Structure formats: C-alpha cells, structure tokens
Amino acid sequence: MVRLVQITDCHLGAEKFFISHGVNTYESFSKVLHEISTKSPPSLIIASGDISSSGEKCSYQLFSDVMESSLIPYRWLPGNHDDFFLMNNIIVQPFVRVEKQENWAIISLVSVDPGSVAGVLAKDEIEQLKNLLQNCQNYFVLLFVHHHPVNINSRWLDEHCISNNRQFEEILAQYDNVRGIFTGHVHQERVTNWNDLLVYNTPSTCFQFASDVERFQLGEQAPGYRWIELYPDGSFDTGVNYLEAWHAGMD
C-alpha cells in the first residue's frame, strides 16, 4: 500500500504572523503538517496550489523550510495566487510532472491562466497530458490539478472552473487506468462524479469556503487535509481530516 497526503491552499504570507480571513495561515499550515508527520506519515505529500497568498518570494521560502524540516518527500503545483517562476527558483523541491509509486503514477497538471482567477489547461499543458497518459498506460493514474474541472453547485466558484473541461474530459475518456482527480482551489471537501470519474475537492490548510452557495461565504470547518491510500489492484481509499481543538477568529 502507498499512502499519500494532499494539502492545498495554504495562502502563506511573507511573514509568519500574516493573517487572512482571521486565520494565521502559517500557524494553521504548520499544525496541519505536524499532525500529518506524527499521526501517520505518508510516502508523499502533494501540495496542490495557492501555496502563497499573493505570490510573495518569502512565502515560498517559509513553505520550503517547513516542508524540508518535516523530512517527508513532497511535490507541489501552482495555483492562481502563485508565481510559478518564483516557486521554481525558491522551493528546494523542484516541480515534478509525474511521480511513480509502485504501480501508480501521480501526475501534476498546471491549470493556471496568468492574470485570471479561473482555470484552463493551456495548449502545451494539453499536449503534456496526452504524452504523460500515453507513457503511463501500465500504471494506475491519479491526477492532481489546482482548479476543479466540474461544477460544484457554488455559482461564484464554478466561474473559476477549468474552461476547456470538455477537451479535458474527452482525453481522459480514452484511458480506463485513470482512477481519480484531486483538486484544490474551492476550500472544501466534496466528491463529484464526472463522466464516471470521481473528482475529489480538498479543504484548505487555513480557512474553508461554505458549500452550495451563490456568493462568497466562509465555512466553519477547521483547517484540513486529505489522505489517500493506494492498493496494488488499482483501488484506493481516501478521506479528509480536520484539525481538532482549532480556534480561529474567522473574518
């Protein structure tokens, strides 16, 4: 069995005391990582974007320092709040397209459209996806991407959905070894059936968004993360853990 953990939307600032929506995001991120490290350390952590609140250089240094000190292997991908160039130059662990764990392949996609909050898989990204899927046909595949490819019944968030999701869907339909898609961005736990492929949204390591709402609204859940256990037969289990005894003045 391979155990993975997904963390997402850390929204770190340039300093450890940075506050966003009433939450010290460095503190919440550090506590989430401490729980992961002590409760059941995974084989790999995947950070699925919006590591920084607004692409500050120092925020990536904070992230890199904490992740390196955990001694757990990790991978990351960018979100719409991130600066991909700075991430590649500051985070000790470089960006990795595909990570193979036993008979599983974990593929990271970039859905960032510079200057836009919404997601898209650019032409080069589509070609990357096609090539990676072609080369991983002997593996069971999980895809990690920041933006969600399918609506989640929240109008304001669904405006950020991957705009060329139909093209994305058509490519995935050609491969029956793709087992699931894991996203960030929406700051909530959710599972959606998308053309018989399950899409898993994962809560943030800081504040959450309310589900099934028309306009922006914060949720009441504590910081969280997702665990994923992969089995040799291509099946997997997954669930979400939230920090216990967490008190923050949500704003």
Primary descriptors:
single chain, 251 residues, alpha/beta, five-stranded mixed sheet, 13 strands
Question: What does this entry look like structurally?
Answer:
This protein is of the alpha/beta class and 251 residues long. Helix content is 24%, strand content 25%. It has 6 helices and 13 strands. The chain has helices at residues 25-39, 57-70, 84-90, 123-135, 155-158, 165-172, and strands spanning 2-7, 19-20, 23-24, 44-48, 74-77, 98-101, 104-108, 140-145, 178-183, 190-194, 197-201, 224-230, 236-242. The strands form 3 sheets. Strands 6-7-8-9-11-10 form a 6-stranded mixed beta sheet, with no helix packed on it. β7, α4 and β8 form a beta-alpha-beta unit. α1 (25-39) runs parallel beside α2 (57-70). The radius of gyration is 17 Å and the shape is globular. The relative contact order is 0.18. The model has no long low-confidence stretch (mean pLDDT 94).
Strand order in space, largest sheet = 6-7-8-9-11-10
Helix content: 10-25%
| Share of residues in strands | 25-35%
The oligomerization state is single chain
